[in-house]
Amino acid sequence: MLDIVQLGPAETREDIDPVLLTMLAVNRLGPATIRTATNGKAQTVSVDDERIARIFRAALDEMQKTRRTDRLVDIVVAAPEPA
Question: Across-strand partners of 77?
């Protein structure tokens, strides 16, 4: 496993729920990368945590090496929508 994301001194791997991270990746990154691959238009994925944004950006950096359209996906940090 590549350890690309550098965590700050106060952050640990335990701070990020791996199940939540996987669900976010499947539910947000997956559809965005499929859309950019099929229509060639930019997509924005919003997350509510800067750490998750850094992880997603690092994943996209790696994925772009084999699928150039993943460069069209932008990750932004936004406040969560009210329930």
Answer: 47
